[in-house]
Amino acid sequence: MERIAGLGVRAKSILGDEATEFVIRESSNGNETLSLLHLEDLIQVVTSKRDEVGNVSIEKHMITKNIETFSHYRYDWLDNYKIGWWMLTALGLLVVLSASFLPSLLFLMNLGILVFCVGLFLTIMQIADPEYIVFETSSGSHRFLVYRMGSNRTLTNISMELIDDTMQEYLKTGKLDNSTFNERYQSVMFGSTASHPTPMPSEPPTAAPTTPPPSEPPTAAPTTPPPSEPPTVAPTTPPPSEPPTSAPTTPPPSEPPVMAPAGPPPMAPPTMALAGPPPMAPPVMAPAGPPPMAPPSEVIQNNPQSDFLDIPPPPPVDFSDIPPPPQVEKLESVSEEDKNQLLDELK
Hints:
The protein is of the alpha+beta class.
């Protein structure tokens, strides 16, 4: 399970809030914790474990009423000389490989293996970064090796830094004070998230600039009607002027229509298409019945440039030469002579 920030397992979740807990080491995923507890004048060192379901179990390593001596051993020299451990490991590996391929250096094989093993061990210990704590009681000593590798390094660093002062205060007063540890842990682990709630009161003023947009539509509304007024007035003025100009062009209704000659229908000249819309007579002047149509003859006479007047009509087709089909009562076989005679007649 991956660690969820701030939800590491604690023994206080089972023992209650009356217990004072000082966390010594917490695993990287927060599901295992080594803690120092003070409850009802008893000092305990316990390991709290949380399974995948969320159940918490406690394993007790030490229960005593008084701690006589506390010891803390730091292995800072592992970090101070870590380059030396790396070089020692590389040198041992180089000697082993050289002795394997060169028989003359075979006597150095054991020395190379020893140097390589020592350098590798110190390198692993430097990566694990351990610290050693001892609780001396009347019943004996209880030793714990605390590794930073695989742990919540931030919490482990804080606890290893404060455990000496905390235990010194406990040996003086008999009370385990973890307030300093909790304050440091909260400031380091949740200091970045705690700074976010402060800008929250300033966020409502930032939303204020979004209020003016509702006032913009009333200012834009008066500007839209003026452009819409001219289109309503413009269409009303042209219609009165159109009827007088188109009235003289209407032919007299008394002329009878003249039939157009045979042939394809004449096409209107391009000049007539540009004459404009057909004239509209006023409602009071329109005669009863269908509107008069211009005779086709006038269109042809007024258009001497038409190229379709010279096209003659197609000749009539005579279907009298086609003989009627023979009447056959029965379906009989026909000889070759009859077939040829029938084909001659059809030709």
